[in-house]
Specification:
Length: 574
């Protein structure tokens, strides 16, 4: 798939244009990039099927950009992009990944300190040169150094929305071979950890040679690092590593357990095996006395032989799951099939790329009973937040659209900024008319712990707020959570009967798995919202569900597993 490559180039073009103070064009490129990145189909397939017209119909693309995409698909290059890069020889894609650095600041750093890339940036920051620049100062330099730390972490660990499609593509290619009995992705990706270092694949086959040959010559392979009779290791085109292991059919269960991990979970399992007179390895479960294989080839069989209930991969972190499995108390985790709606999506009215009608159509296709439109509020100037009159117009439109639906309802919501003093960004007379109010922090991320906690708790005490959006504000690999007393926030939310969001956007996943576990243990309810800015991003729900599973959530903990009829119990205005 060339989708992500193209999105990256478009984003970079936008950055370079912005540096040159060109108006509007950067936004167009960015919008197209975001829509291309979230497409669930291969952009090449769209082009092959319907040519330029097909490309043109991608939201935010249009004729001009469709030509650029065509050029890239045909030649592997975009001429205009090359020329721009020559004009501005800064590695903006990398530099602007640092949370504090936008294109404008990067331009100043280039002009004044000749900083072209991350390496130059680190050198200058460590030498204290950035602190001396007017408008930057000691604090900014510290922010940059912190950002550099996060950036390095991100280089090592990919987000789920990057890793998962690649893994699925590899699996698909391998499963086509008649020599392959099964091919599965394993490791931390199978446990759906929020970031993964590499893509591990386990294949079951009696003919490993052919499997290894196919794997090492996949289109996506940039370099083969190692190639043996039953294993291989490669570097993929996006620089991620992928390791393949081939085992025999009788080794499947033990192999899956071993390679899915986690290491800590496996150590605990091996200890139980020893206590029972067995030996557990990636090849199977054996009697210590006779060396004979214990019958049974599935993961379930092995858990059973160890007197444990089956443990789903997402729980295998040695965080209490072994004890629960001993007592037969593994929870029935929430699954994507339980989801009946999405509480957090943005439309064209603010910074999304699709119309409310199109979003509703997608929701219905997903089998949802409801969809809450939650565009940004008026203070969000960059995100084109809705003025009061526009929000009222939107509510009217939603009511009108609802007249045509059967068994489906659009909910009129808003993602309302929580202002510095904890008040909400619309007056009471407006808030009153909304079905659901999500309150979110989008400014002053660096406030003190006390200030931030007070600000959020004040908002939670506002009778119009229903859900606290992305509660910790972290951006994975980019920004740390706010300085916040989360226990206090949970307590105040509980007292005021408010709900917490699990934002399913792959670089947020906020609340995190461990935060979720704490929240539901206290009795709080969780709303999973994709924060989709296009209809394709509504598919991010799967990352939310996976994180909820890692947080031990069951169906009854998650608000969007309830039917439309059940919702009024949790949202009074419905
Ligand atoms: Zn937000
Ligand atoms: Zn949002």
């Amino acid at each position: 798939m060339k989708n992500l490559e193209l999105a990256k180039i478009f984003n970079e073009i936008a950055d370079i244009l912005e540096i040159q103070d060109i108006q509007w064009k950067p936004q167009a490129y960015r919008k197209a990039a975001s829509s291309i990145a979230s497409l669930s189909i291969d952009i090449e397939k769209i082009y092959k099927k319907s040519g330029l017209k097909g490309l043109d119909s991608i939201p935010g693309v249009g004729k001009h950009l469709a030509l650029k995409i065509e050029e890239y698909l045909k030649t592997g290059k975009i001429k205009a992009y090359k020329q721009l890069k020559k004009k501005v020889p800064i590695d903006l894609a990398e530099l602007t990944h640092i949370e504090f650095l936008g294109p404008k600041k990067a331009k100043r750093l280039y002009k004044e300190l000749k900083i072209k890339n991350i390496k130059d940036l680190e050198k200058a920051a460590k030498a204290g040169k950035i602190a001396k620049l007017s408008g930057f100062g000691e604090k900014s330099q510290q922010d940059i150094l912190e950002g550099l730390g996060m950036y390095k972490l991100g280089k090592k660990r990919a987000l789920l929305n990057i890793a998962l499609p690649i893994a699925k593509e590899i699996i698909q290619s391998l499963n086509k071979l008649k020599e392959v009995k099964s091919a599965e992705y394993v490791g931390s990706l199978r446990r759906m950890k929020e970031t993964v270092r590499d893509i591990d694949i386990l294949v079951i086959s009696n003919k490993p040679k052919k499997v290894i040959q196919t794997f090492t010559s996949l289109d996506n392979v940039k370099k083969v690092l190692a190639k043996g009779p039953t294993k291989a290791s490669v570097v993929l085109k996006n620089n991620m590593h992928s390791d393949l292991r081939v085992l025999k059919p009788e080794e499947k269960g033990a192999g899956l357990l071993y390679f899915i991990g986690s290491k800590e979970h496996n150590i605990a399992l091996r200890k139980i095996a020893i206590e029972k007179g067995y030996k557990l390895s990636e090849y199977g479960l054996f009697s210590r006395n006779t060396g004979k294989r214990i019958p049974g080839t599935s993961e379930k069989d092995i858990y059973k032989a160890l007197s444990l209930k089956y443990i789903p991969p997402e729980l295998r972190e040695n965080q209490g799951e072994i004890e629960a499995a001993k007592k037969g108390k593994i929870p029935t985790l929430i699954s994507i099939k339980d989801i009946k709606g999405d509480f957090h999506v943005h439309s064209k009215w603010s910074d999304g790329s699709d119309s409310i009608k199109d979003l509703a159509t997608t929701a219905k296709k997903l089998g949802y009973q409801y969809l809450c439109i939650s565009d940004h509020s008026k203070s969000e100037k960059i995100a084109n937040g809705l003025s009061e009159s526009n929000l009222l117009k939107q509510i009217k439109l939603i009511k009108k659209l609802n007249k045509n639906f059967r068994g489906f309802k659009l909910l009129a919501g808003s993602e309302v900024d929580i202002l510095a003093d904890g008040s909400l960004d619309y007056p009471e007379k407006i808030l009153k008319q909304l079905d659901i109010v999500i309150g979110s922090i989008h400014s002053r991320f660096k406030s003190s712990k006390q200030e931030m906690t007070k600000r959020i708790c004040t908002a939670l005490e506002n009778k119009h707020l229903n859900i606290l959006g992305h509660p910790t504000g972290r951006l994975i690999n980019q920004r740390k959570p706010y300085n916040l007393d989360l226990d206090q926030v949970f307590k105040v939310a509980l007292e005021n009967k408010k709900h917490l969001e699990l934002n399913a956007f792959p670089n947020r996943l906020d609340l995190s798995d461990t935060n979720l576990k704490e929240a539901i243990e206290l009795g709080l309810k969780i709303s999973i919202g994709t924060d989709a800015h296009s209809k394709d991003q509504m598919n991010y729900m799967k990352f939310g569900v996976a994180t909820a599973r890692r947080g031990w959530c069951q169906k009854n903990h998650i608000l969007n597993t309830f039917t439309l009829k059940q919702l009024p119990k949790y949202f009074k205005k419905l």
